Amino acid sequence: MTLLATLAHADADLTACLARVMAAVLKPGDVVAMEGPVGAGKTHFARAFIRARQGDMAEDVPSPTFTLVQTYEDPMGTEIWHADLYRLTHPDELIELGLDEAMREAVVLIEWPDHGGPLPDPLIMGLEPIADFPELRDVTLAGSEARWGAIARLPAIARLIHRAGWSEARLIPLAGDASSRRYFRLIDDDRSAVLMDAAPGPAGDYVAMTQWLRARGFHAPEILAADQAEGLLLLEDLGDDLVARVLETEPQLGSRIYDRMTDLLVELHRHAPPDFVLRLDGAELARQVGLFAEHYAPAVGAPGKADEVADVIERLHGEIAADAAPVLGLRDFHAENLVWQGDDSMGILDFQDAVAVHPAYDLVSGLQDARRDVAVDIEEAQIARYIAATGVSPERFRAAYALLGAQRGLRIMGIFTRLAQRDGKPRYLAFMPRVWAAIQRDIAHPALAPLAEALAGIPAPTPQIIERIARA
């Protein structure tokens, strides 16, 4: 049993806030054993937890002191059991109550757990009133690191939300990305916000880029509150109209949307990049594409065959792209990270890894999207639109576009392989054929003949190859 986290001097509001945060992450089979004397706030915590899980279905949550067990259901059909074992006379009564089975299939909150005997790997929550301050309590969370380690983040999240005036909000998990970051939407009556948990590590890069973008009129989410040391940010909620979703539901807007994406880059590139971002030059591009040789090539039975790729990319960058003045590249500039707001400026998400790079880099990112097909005529129209708006050399820009597209694609192939084999995230493998097809189009550019030669003999991600990667 490991002490995971503490929440010191918590009043009733902060205790309930922690309950709402915990309600967003617990899943069936999770057991919370609440320890503490009478009046410590165990039932208060359970009531806030259950009502947060139920949302609009929220009902009264009485103490189970006399019934021993009360059961509830959330909108997703998960059962929540609230038990008070103070009057339990023998641990065998757990079976009669059905708690033994519930602890395998439901979220279970137990008061006075010591009256019920051993529990299956519970989260131990201690609530200890503070002498002379009966309205306050110290909260501790303890459990096995393997199962409950992520819970250690929750008290810091609760402190930030409480301090920012959002302690009454419900938290709803939002879909994450390929990184370790996670996101929650906070809903409090008619207002909403987004919490970003960027751990491990502080959130200074995100804050710096947010300030830089907003100072120049770009619609990055406003930072409402922050705990930068903990990597926690409370952000303006830009809504659910991601460009990816709008393209799916209203495909007739495709040309207009991609025009706006290109115009956003044209405007962004009028500003010199800040001096605090990484310079993505030829050497750094070569280093990052090493992921392809490190992960994809060995996984497809071609170890060593991609060893020359990085050197070729660095050399070609010097010949094709090094003369262009670097601009700010948001790096993950694509339909999943842009919010459509009609005639208003597009909302921009996920830019903390911004770099100083060749102007073609983000255009490639948006038009050679790993997650969706972009029509060839749209891609060509946007390249031409950017060239016309900026006055760059068409021949050199197209060659650099092809080079950066190939580099990005090869790096992504390595990342997707690593995500599947190291991190247990195989869903990205389904995007590999699309990425590989874009790489093949890019290396067909005459200027990239040396790269095409370096890639010769490396197998394409066929269904058989993808299955092989997934099984490894």
TrEMBL record:
Record keyword Ribosomal protein present: no
Family: Belongs to the TsaE family.
Keywords recorded for this protein, A-Z: ATP-binding, Cytoplasm, Magnesium, Metal-binding, Nucleotide-binding, tRNA processing
Protein name: tRNA threonylcarbamoyladenosine biosynthesis protein TsaE
Subcellular location, principal: cytoplasm
Subcellular location: Cytoplasm
Domain Aminoglycoside phosphotransferase: 172-396
InterPro entries hit by this protein: Aminoglycoside_PTrfase (IPR002575), Kinase-like_dom_sf (IPR011009), P-loop_NTPase (IPR027417), T6A_TsaE (IPR003442)
